[in-house]
# Entry
Amino acid sequence: MSEELSPINEKERRLEVKVQNTSPDTVYALGLIGAWIYYLSRAGTPQEKLKGFLKGFIWPVILVKEMLAFFHQE
# Structure
């Protein structure tokens, strides 16, 4: 007695694999944390710590601006 799978059972047994791409938000968050570690570890005064905290948010903007300026030179 052989057991054959009906189309309904084949659908139930199908395994779906979803690939999740890394979102830009995740990459930005890792860069933000890295920038905070870099700037805050070098800050000595509370004013420098505040500047370092704010620079952590702004560094990607400056990076992209400088890269676009560099590529525009060609």
In short: Residues 40 and 48 are 8 Å apart (CA to CA).
